[in-house]
Sequence to fold (434 residues):
Amino acid sequence: MTCRSIQVNSKEEWLNASQWLKDRSKSSSEVEAKVAEIIAAVQKDGDAALIAYTSQFDCQDFEPPLRLSEQDISLAAASIPPEDRDRIYRAADNIRAFHESQKEKSWFITQSDGTILGQRVLPVDAVGLYVPGGQGGNTPLISTLLMNAIPAQTAGVSRIAICTPPRKDGSVNAHILAAAHLLGIEEIYRVGGAWSIAAMAYGTESVASVDVIAGPGNIFVTTAKRLVQGKVGIDMIAGPSEVLILADGSANLNCLAADLLSQAEHDALASAMLITTDKRLAEELPAELDRQCATLPRADIAKRSLENWGAVILVPSMKLAVDIANAIAPEHLEVATRDPWSILPSIRHAGAIFLGHNSPEPLGDYYAGPNHVLPTMGTARFSEALSVQTFCKKSSIIAASQGFLNASINDVAALARLEGLEAHARSVEIRRKK
Fold:
């Protein structure tokens, strides 16, 4: 396996050495054109388009209805092993406890003249969640469902709909249905791909439109979310998975390799990189990656990821390591050092930060509680994890007293006239009371 090994002594050297990473963000005009065509077809033909695309790409003999019955969902939930059901419950409890702490309250302030100003926080009315089917529907992305649905429920969203592609026989994986059932979600559609995003955005005969769409998917699903943004809100435009590890001599070589591979196995476009101040780690890690990768079921994917987008970077100081990490702004940042808390204040840009040797990234993917839907491709510089706020909206409240209005009229009218808006000025002046 060829995993880049780089030694840099300054941030400038890193910027010059990292040009290869820019190729990860290349978009495809061909994909966009195909997705735009799909969206137009769904807008025009509704359910008929959904059935046609599902028959073409997912289930050759697909037959309506698109929506699963409550009986189908409950039977699926009862069919999974009890120990799996218990694990889903425990993960859901952790995720819910974390997101409960994110809830914001409406607030008001009262001024001395009686004016009341404030902000009201309300959930959106309806959310659509996309849950990928995994490999042919046989690797159910339960964690994706939990990480998207629970913040929406915590926000207080009254309607949550799930779209997930059917398997070749038309069924949906029982574990996905069980997870939804355990959360009390009964609106589930056997439809996936870009056409399901169009359905949730614009509505069809069977699928009512929503206000916010969340959930990961392939490049076609991601492109569809980008194209419908504005008609609906979306969680984010997410790219391939990423992990960056900062490590010193206290880190365990085997653990570092395992953590890097945990992201490399996602996708051939995934990025897994280590920045270390320890020469021994830098020299020995590539061989350990080779050894562990060879035993993975998804070894081919992980190998391509590491060859194209992986790197072991040796630096002279942890300060430079942090500077490079901030420049990369990774989705996941592990700090595998003797004193990770001393480094935390210097970290400015990362989707999620995992501190210490006992905090591997997969712990966050499934179980710890913080959301695993995170900004990628450097967007952690200005965006953040999916949260309760993703499914809320805020309204400003203004209830002015007569005294406040009278004291403001001259200023408001003058500012309005500077902008050439005479009617604005008269709107306040007509209310002047002697």
The CA atoms of residues 262 and 358 lie 15 Å apart. The first strand starts at residue 4 and ends at 7. The mean pLDDT is 95.
